[in-house]
């Protein structure tokens, strides 16, 4: 048992060290990997507890009861009726789960439930930037549907069910192509085969201008200024966008991404042909969004899921609800 205590202490210290290094920025953490390892480790302890350690403690407790019963029978034969000592407390101590199992096997059901829920059903995210204003604000806590586009295996992100096709206008979370360990959220503007043009701040899909209608100006409380706001329709989705008329139309600082040969940049903006198996993404805050105009297309393999619900914003409870 002493060896198991030592091993468990080392394992828990490794988890704490990893989290600490991640929190301080010493390493680039991977929560999915951390949760998977926690599930595997606690699951191993849970199996060991169920099929080895618990039966072992029960046998020891039963042996204690049998010995006490035999002792009392012998004393009874000797005519001694009153016997001091009660083994009930000692039996409870024998059956009690030690700390190193309580902190591993005891946590397995909760960790496993979180792992399955996060991997195959819904995953929570926090909006860190204003690239999706006015649809999503900084501080919004959102839920992402992990099965709409097909269920994927955790860590390797391999698709195992077909799901629904990605639609123009969907708000999608994906792995940032230049740095796949990071998750990004943008709106799907172009699907495979589309020709997307964003020229002079007007979006065109396959040669057809996207329908927009002017709305009252949007006040950005963080920037402390008003921006031009429009209602835009992509496919079946209607949503709002904001535009800063003072920002230039041309795209400055686009990287040399895969598939850039299918894009044409000019002072008016950019036109791109979306390759097969890829998607063109843009933020609703059109002049304050680092998106496909700058770093290219999102491969099918990078899809995480469809964002659909704000479940909390501690600064504004009215934000809670679904969105387009």
UniProtKB/TrEMBL annotation:
Its main location: membrane. Its EC number is 3.4.21.89. It catalyses: Cleavage of hydrophobic, N-terminal signal or leader sequences from secreted and periplasmic proteins. It is an enzyme of class 3 (hydrolase). The chain crosses the membrane at residues 7-25, 31-48, 100-121. Residues 101-312 form the Peptidase S26 domain. It holds the Pfam family Peptidase_S26. Keywords: Hydrolase, Membrane, Protease, Transmembrane, Transmembrane helix. The active site is at 131, 186. The keyword rRNA-binding does not apply. It is found in: Membrane. It is a single-pass type II membrane protein. Belongs to the peptidase S26 family. This is Signal peptidase I. It comes from Paenacidovorax caeni. The lineage of its organism: Bacteria, Pseudomonadati, Pseudomonadota, Betaproteobacteria, Burkholderiales.
